[in-house]
Amino acid sequence: MTIALHGIGIGGGIAIGRAHLVTHTDLEVAHYEITAAEVPAEIARYDSAVRATRKELEQLWGSIPENAPTELGAFLSLHVMLLNDHTISREPRDIITAQHCNAEWALKLQQDRLLEQFDEIEEEYLRERRTDVIQVVERLFKALNGQNGQHYVPPEDSKHRILVAYDLSPADMVLFKEAAFAAFLTDVGGPTSHTAILARSLDIPSILALHNARQLIREEEMIIVDGTAGVVIVDPSDTILAEYRKRQTDYAADRKRLKGLKSTAATTLDGTTIELFANIETPNDVDHVRANGAQGVGLYRSEFLFLGRDDLPAEEEQYRAYKAVLEGMKGAPVTIRTIDLGRDKMPRWADEDTTSAPNPALGLTGVRLCLAEPMLFRTQLRALLRAGKHGKLRLLVPMLANLAEVSQVLFHVEQAKESLREDGIDFADNVEVGGMIEIPGAALTINHFLSRLDFVSIGTNDLIQYTLAVDRGDDAVSHLYDPFHPAVLHLIGYVIRQADAAGVPVSVCGEMAGDVRLTRLLLALGLRRFSMHPAQLLNVKQIILQSDLKRLNGLAAEIEHAPDADRVRELLAEHLG
Ligand code: PEP
Ligand code: MG
Questions:
Q1: What percent of the chain has pLDDT over 90?
Q2: pLDDT of 153 strictly over 70
Q3: Is the Cβ–Cβ distance between 28 and 172 less than 8 Å?
Q4: pLDDT tens, position by position, 400-411
Q5: CB 340 within 8 A of CB 324
Q6: Pairing relation of β-strands 206-208 and 222-226?
Q7: Around Cβ 450, how many Cβ atoms within 10 Å?
Q8: Distance in angstroms between the alpha carbons of the first and the last residue of the chain
Q9: Which of 28, 184, 205, 532 is least buried, going by the fewest C-beta atoms within 10 A?
Q10: By C-alpha distance, which of 546, 513, 511, 512 is closest to 529?
Q11: Is the CB of 462 inside a 6 Å radius of any atom of ligand 1?
Q12: Strand partners of residue 226
């Protein structure tokens, strides 16, 4: 039976392929020993996860919409039954006691055992229930909040497969960057979560916040993913398939046409040239940057080098990665952001205090973590300064909230230089240091930052999150995460004006910079330097080429004083219509 699911589309284009379901357990499971004295607490932790999962399933069951497919209710009731079965609710407790291991590991062992039994079942209906076991266990893992562990091996034909997961962490996405899939689908996630950002950088259609995709899609089922519309069609008819294959061809032709703009300067109709830079996550992304004609790298999220691994990258490894990007960009400017871990980018080696922070988005994250871990910071700064010899490097510091942080960062940079001098190691002495403006407090006091920094870059992803108090990764509130909100635009406009007046270069490197709905709005606010994922660059350039800045005169003031986001959208349409 054909069904359509709706979510948040985060990558353009259409993918058609067979489903490949991955579970959280496939990806990462922690394994550590506990003492005999810790066993009761670990069992209590497991029991509490079972209770939380039961409550979650019961709530889902109670809130099934009337028009939902009837199987959904049946699945959920089956899941409650499986959860209550002693094989899942009791036996992992025995494993914890016998093996003195953590609850996640006990659950993983029990899952492996159960799946083996299911594989031996001849009867097809029962054998298929193994998926339900995986889904229940996955919910339990979520409740346990497990991390770390083994590595996932993707199927060989992954580039023809559509990956379906309940959730993917940024670390999982790093793994998937190496194993191309045709598309990604997840049940949860917000439009500017780091998972979404990585999926976007892969330049494939992906859809988040589908809610029930993992319940409704079966392994190997044929699916169409329309990343622009945010629609998934499961088990399509031949007519629907033919229609989408045509749309796929049209999309590819459009992309090819856009490639023709690669070497065209991004100049508006009135003759103003706009600078377009690219955001990257790994050195391999450089090819993509060059293929789309970016003028340089405006944001290299260096922290991805620290994710999805158990150890810390040593100075030498970091140096090689940064050097590869600088050399790959052949003298064009490369802005490398210093480590921005924490929040949804939690490294495996993070200690208990960091991982269990009551509110990670307000905790030890970004530059705060670097200042709290001076050796971590020193190692990175040394690697960066050394790499600076191989190109035009700029350092960008994330999550600045106050001037004391700027002073401390500059002090650490000097210390790193001093230590390199002492060791007789060559480094670049003239590297510019800039700051990300992504906390409203920093935006409002921007003038003071401008006198201490060589450049600033507005991180709209976090700026929206902190201005509107909306978690960027939580799809339950994603309708409130609105870049058109006048408060957000007011802060962006203010920072740009102040930076221009002070003669300090300013850019936007959050997802807003690559969103074609917002290109003219940002131009109206005075932005002349954008940094975005390479895949978005030519679309944005096309809008710039068709824009006349004279027609945008006066729009900024009106927008910043608009009462709400709807009025901003109206104003934009009226001005351009
Ligand atoms: C931002 O916050 O806008 C930004 C560019 O940084 P990140 O998305 O990595 O937090
Ligand atoms: Mg940020």
A1: 64
A2: no
A3: yes
A4: 999 999 999 999
A5: no
A6: unpaired
A7: 21
A8: 42
A9: 28
A10: 513
A11: yes
A12: 14, 231
Instruction: Count CA within 13 A, CB hemisphere, residue 477.
Output: 12
Exposure pattern of 379-397 as b/e (b: 16+ CB <10 Å)? Answer: bbbbbbbbbbbbbbbbbbb
Q: Write the Ramachandran bin of 417: left for phi over 0, alpha for psi from -120 to 50, otherwise beta.
A: alpha
Tokens of 387: 């790499």
Residue nearest to atom 1 of ligand 1 (CA): 459
Given a contact cutoff of 8 angstroms between Cβ atoms, the answer to whether 417 and 469 are in contact is no
State the Cα–Cα distance between residues 152 and 177, nearest whole angstrom: 13
Letter for the amino acid at 10? Answer: I
pLDDT tens, 456-507? 999 999 999 999 999 998 888 999 999 999 999 999 999 999 999 999 999 9
457 CB near ligand 1 (under 6 Å): no
Long-range contacts of 373-381 (CB under 8 A, 24+ apart): 374/412, 376/312, 376/339, 377/338, 377/339, 377/412, 378/412, 378/415, 378/416, 378/419, 379/312, 379/314, 379/315, 379/318, 380/302, 380/318, 380/338, 380/339, 381/338, 381/412, 381/413, 381/416
Which positions are annotated as active-site residues?
194, 509
Nearest-atom number in ligand 1 for the CA of 340 is 9
DSSP state of 314: P
**pTM score, two decimals?**
0.78
pLDDT in tens, 92-131: 999 999 999 999 989 989 998 898 887 777 776 676 677 7
